[in-house]
Amino acid sequence: MKTRVCRLYGQRELRVEEMDVAAPGPGEVLVAIGAGGICGSDLHYFQDGGFGPIRVREPIILGHEIAGTVQAVGEGVDRVFPGDRVAVNPSRPCNDCRFCREGLRQHCLNMRFFGSALRFPHEQGGFRDLLVAQDFQCERIGPRTSLAEAAVAEPFAVCLHARSRAGDLSGKSVLVTGAGPAAAHAGAAEIVVTDLQDAALAIASRMGATTTVNVAANPDLLDRYKAEKGQFDLAFECSAAAPAVHTAIECVRPQGTIVQLGVAGDLPVPVNMLVGKEINLIGSHRFDAEFGEAVRLIDSGAIDVKPIITASYPLEDALAAFEIAGDRSRAVKVQLTFAETAA
Ligand code: ZN
Hints:
- Helices cover about 25% and strands about 30% of the residues.
- It has about 350 residues and is an alpha/beta fold.
- The protein has two domains: about 1-150 and about 305-335, Quinone Oxidoreductase, Chain A, domain 1, CATH 3.90.180.10; about 155-285, Rossmann fold.
- Helix 4 crosses helix 9 (about 290-300).
- The structure holds zinc ion.
- Zinc ion (ZN) binds near residues 96, 99 and 110.
């Protein structure tokens, strides 16, 4: 069998080409991908050849926000069947290392994560017509959920994991720097979202933000949140931009918490304020069980992720899709569609 794949050869050097795909072996599932979201990390690989110490060192098939239709299953698979529509979890922990055994599978020492250049050889990704996954990576969806919506399960799971790192949100005032799916923070009394782009903020409003602030156009609007040592109980820092990290530390109250989700290389942090205000700075990395939770919340209609999806392009136009995805004034989430989407 042949499949088209979207492979990155170097900075801005993206090619759609054909390769062989094997039939699914024991425990494996052949999925015809229907939708694949372009993530910030895919963009970093495309635009900059990586981020921080993580560099693209060999050609890599990008993509880890994917959903599709099961075409065939290997021996022993009884979790999904041909014809099932599934969100594909890009995580493949070993289930055997010390962290997997501790229940911290996102820290698996042998993690294989689709479309990631973290390890070498790189883990190839899901921007392809046909993909072989492990059966445990496939989460079934119902007939009312589109594959495009199901493909948002991965970034949504990242938000759910960050929320679980933050603890109880009920009644709290929350700052989100760098617009993400604000609705993941339901239960909070107030959700203020900052971004540099109105397009992203408009979507944040539709996703549950109570107030939005364009910090490029109106930085003064943040002053009231910095008053009296800061107003927010909690901040989710999604941008990994130095000014936003600074804003979060300024605007969170003493003994408040900042959950850092945005990823970059080294960033300057105003340690004096961090210490002086006794702020809890917490990292949040990917997700584990939250993937299934994200799929169920989307599939049940408890959360509507459709506003996030701003455009979709067929795989053959991947280069244009990556250019648009890189323009944050126009796009929040750009997805690719595949042979299955048209079928
Ligand atoms: Zn492990």
